[in-house]
Specification:
The chain is of the alpha/beta class and 603 residues long. It folds into five domains: 2-102, Orthogonal Bundle (Arc Repressor Mutant, subunit A), CATH 1.10.10.10; 116-135 and 147-242, Serine Threonine Protein Phosphatase 5, Tetratricopeptide repeat (Alpha Horseshoe); 305-432, 3-Layer(aba) Sandwich (Rossmann fold); 437-516; 523-600, Arc Repressor Mutant, subunit A. Helix content is 47%, strand content 11%. The protein is built from 24 helices and 17 strands. It has a five-stranded parallel β-sheet, with helices on one face. Helix 10 packs antiparallel against helix 11 (231-242), helix 16 crosses helix 18 (457-466) and helix 22 packs across helix 23 (553-564). The protein is globular, with a radius of gyration of 27 Å.
């Protein structure tokens, strides 16, 4: 058994976690866990439970809360004297195996110890993955949120800043963009995140975007604080305006780079280029590519047992270059399955597992040349490698990236079928569909905890149905419930059912939004195919009869294009079908398009 403090307060056993209900005992437990192994004074605990408005019976009520917690621990198998009564207060011992906060701090300390940048980055990422959502979301103590949460949050942000610094220093400017983009938006007061974002944009050749970001930061600071950006941001702006070479990257410690020569990085390059050696070597030595950090397991991953087993068998066969294509509708779980299989099989690839997202945060696609700059050069990997190419848009985008050496492997995820890629390179194809009801239930149990799901089994089944059994939708709904521990599943279902899929989104993360994900898939198509999709929203049922868009050759092509884009399923000789969520989205898009067209027609 272990306690999880870095997110909703919960008690976990293996993969199962029970999120505690908001209550005085939850506040008491959080107050003790924030100071593991230390004597926590009675006065502090009283403030944690009642702040400054303490009742006359507060000390007796505190003892009652301790007894309730001990009974709760016994219920979930927490043995021993977990809470000790000591002179002046109470103490709760915990170590890295029983409390995520202790493990987080131990990993951060280990990252600061001797070792190379790759090892430091791996430990920092392992520490950061322990944070599972808004801190103490189900703990109702105003004092803890006021006095303790800011300090804990600061620990996380320092670790995240350091991890992003190392990734920049290792030349992984494109990979770090998503992290620093999100961090800069969520924490606009921390200039270092903005500086990292602007530097990453500039080093990847996006000079105009870097300047736009700088001016946005400067305008916000002037308007809200009346101050100018700090010296670091100002120097960076000047370098961008001049088109300066920012020079070698630094991680504040020695970062191993390929070969003995100096490294020069120019704007727009993603891989350090070796300068000329001072003297010719008798024989060229190909430097080994640095190993990427291990791939962590996907949180709360469930289902897909048959596909996962087949993919893992293909990847570990080792007989020839292997290509696995995962396709399907947007939000269907392609990326999660690819990463989980990569985690499962990484020990079979001593040369490393390289994960590359083939689209930028703005939705535009990487070119093959840009992607190649992020991957190890041929012949530099120390053994078999696995490449995960996520969100691929065309076959030509990835053909130059596929492994040629025996034993190398690639997992390609795409909303499109990529039949042309399979025709030229072979491999296996897995077209993912929605989860079945049992798999949806497993995902909700893994995300919410068995107690909460089993308390409302009918509502949980209805939630899965309203979410269309899409993994993305289920994870969004689960996140909403986790951050609102007092919200019943039944009430969440009723609210979502009023306007799906529009309400399947999270305000603090635009990527976790069903309309956003569906919209990106739709807007990659030509306008005529977009309009064909809108027409499907008014059809009865989910099976589309022959001639649904007309009997012309273009109508038939439209259905093929939509199916290839993951917006329809199956096809000849049987009927096409559309998922329920996509049908509702098509209807909403048609209404919005008609409203916009009416508004632009002159009267």
């Amino acid at each position: 058994m272990r306690f999880q403090l870095l997110g909703p307060l919960s008690i976990a056993d293996g993969q199962d976690a029970v999120v505690l209900k908001p209550s005085k005992p939850a506040s008491l437990l959080a107050a003790l866990l924030i100071h593991p192994g230390s004597v926590v004074s009675t006065g502090y605990l009283l403030r944690a439970l009642w702040d400054e408005d303490q009742p006359a019976t507060a000390r007796a009520a505190l003892q009652s809360c301790v007894l309730r917690l001990r009974r709760l621990f016994a219920k979930y198998g927490v043995t021993g004297s977990a809470i000790e009564a000591v002179p002046g207060g109470y103490r709760m011992n915990a170590d890295a195996d029983t409390l995520d906060l202790v493990r987080f701090r131990a990993l951060v300390r280990a990252a600061d110890g001797p070792g190379d940048a790759e090892s430091e980055l791996y430990r920092l990422k392992e520490a950061l993955v322990l944070w599972q959502g808004p801190l103490l979301a189900n703990v109702p103590s105003p004092m803890l949120h006021r006095d303790e949460v800011p300090g804990l949050t600061e620990e996380r942000l320092r670790a995240l800043e350091r991890a992003c610094d190392i990734e920049l220093a290792l030349g992984r400017c494109r990979q770090v963009l998503v992290d620093v983009w999100e961090a800069a938006r969520r924490h606009p007061g921390r200039e270092r995140f903005s500086e990292q974002l602007i530097e990453a944009l500039y080093r990847t050749g996006r000079q105009s975007e870097a300047l736009t970001e700088y001016r946005s930061v400067k305008g916000r600071m002037k308007e809200e604080l009346g101050i100018d950006p700090g010296p670091g941001l100002q120097r960076l702006e000047l370098a961008i305006l001049r088109g300066d070479d920012l020079g070698p990257l630094s991680a504040d410690r020695a970062v191993p780079l390929p070969g003995p020569a100096a490294v020069a990085l120019t704007p727009g390059t993603a891989r350090p280029a070796l300068a000329a050696a001072p003297a010719p070597a008798p024989a060229p030595v190909v430097p080994s590519a640095p190993l990427p950090p291990p791939v962590p397991p996907v949180p709360s991953f469930t289902g897909r047992a048959a596909e996962r087993a087949a993919i893992n068998a293909s990847l570990t066969s080792g007989t020839s270059a292997t290509v696995v294509v995962l396709s399907g509708a947007p939000g269907i779980g392609k990326t999660a399955l690819a990463l989980q299989s990569a985690h499962d099989c990484q020990d079979s690839f001593p040369g490393g597992v390289f994960v590359l997202t083939m689209t930028r945060p703005d939705g535009s696609s990487l070119t093959a040349a840009e992607a190649m700059a992020e991957l190890p050069a041929p012949g530099t990997a120390a053994g078999r490698t696995l490449v995960v190419l996520d969100d691929v848009t065309t076959a030509d985008q990835v053909r130059p990236l596929l492994p040629a050496a025996a034993g190398g492997a690639a997992v390609v995820t795409s909303r499109r079928g990529l039949a042309g890629l399979v025709a030229t390179h072979g491999g296996t194809v897995h077209r993912l569909s929605t989860l079945d009801p049992e798999e949806s239930q497993e995902l909700l149990v893994a995300a919410l905890g068995a107690g909460r799901v089993h308390a409302e089994p009918a509502a949980a089944r209805e939630l899965a149905r309203v979410c269309g059994h899409f993994p993305l939708s289920l994870r969004i709904a689960a996140a909403r419930l986790l951050t609102r521990p007092g919200l019943r599943i039944e009430d969440c279902v009723a609210w979502l059912a009023e306007d799906p899929p529009a309400r399947l989104s999270l305000a603090d993360d635009p990527r976790m939004s069903v309309p956003h994900v569906f919209g990106r898939a739709l807007h990659r198509l030509e306008p005529r195919w977009q309009q064909a999709f809108r027409q499907l929203g008014d059809q009865e049922g989910l099976l589309l009869p022959p001639g649904v868009l007309g009997d012309s050759a273009e109508a038939e092509e439209a259905l093929e294009r939509l199916a290839d884009a993951g917006l329809l399923e199956e096809g000849p000789p049987g009927p096409y079908r559309i998922h329920q969520l996509l049908k509702i989205y098509a209807r909403q898009q048609a209404r919005e398009w008609n409203r916009n067209r009416t508004a632009t027609v002159p009267h």
